[in-house]
Write a structure and sequence with these properties.
The protein contains six helices and six strands; from the N terminus they run αβαβαααβββαβ. The chain is mainly alpha-helical and 176 residues long. Strands 1-2 form a two-stranded parallel ribbon. The radius of gyration is 15 Å and the shape is globular. It starts with 8 loop residues before the first helix and ends in a 9-residue tail after the last strand.
Length: 176
């Protein structure tokens, strides 16, 4: 959040470059981040992993970090796609919202990072994300990990995502 509050594209990109270089040195090709969810409140568990309550700033921060890391060989996989509402008892959280809210707030940061349209124009190549971690959450009654609309409809169909998806470790523990 501190780096994002600088509103500096260069600083965010440099953070990604640094993380990419550090990961190359230790032999780590992928990280589970950056966090693409929006802040809810300061007491929301892992708030330090998420950039802002503003979806556009969060998306730009994720994009710059990921592209900087990718330029040094790191695959950054934003998390938690999507609707990660809270940390405490997060298994089975099922937020209900309109499609407009989902697209304008909850998904917008991921869209900016996945499309990376700024870099696509500047470099003339597809620089979007190569991976993502899907959240524990549900959208309504459907697990995000099983949502055809979220994964195939939006990420692949609309944002042209051609990477891989992983679940958030031990998903579906709410149904045990």
């Amino acid at each position: 959040p501190l780096v994002a509050s600088s509103f500096s594209h260069d600083l965010l990109y440099a953070m990604g470059e640094f993380m990419g270089l550090e990961c190359v040195i230790v032999g780590l090709p992928i990280i589970w981040g950056p966090g693409g969810n929006t802040h809810r409140m300061p007491y929301n568990g892992r708030t330090g992993e998420y950039y802002s309550e503003d979806a556009i700033l969060t998306g730009v921060a994720c994009m710059e970090f990921a592209v900087g890391g990718r330029d040094n060989g790191l695959i950054a996989s934003p998390k938690h796609y999507a609707f990660n509402d809270q940390e405490l008892n997060r298994n089975g959280i099922a937020p209900f919202m309109t499609e407009q809210r989902a697209r304008e707030v909850e998904l917008r940061a991921f869209q900016v990072a996945f499309e990376a349209s700024y870099y696509d124009r500047v470099r003339g190549e597809d620089t979007g994300m190569l991976g993502m971690m899907i959240s524990f959450s549900k959208i309504g009654a459907v697990e995000c990990t099983c949502s055809w609309g979220l994964i195939n409809g939006i990420a692949v169909g609309e944002w042209d995502f051609h990477g891989y998806c992983v679940t958030d470790i031990n998903d579906d523990t709410d149904s045990l």
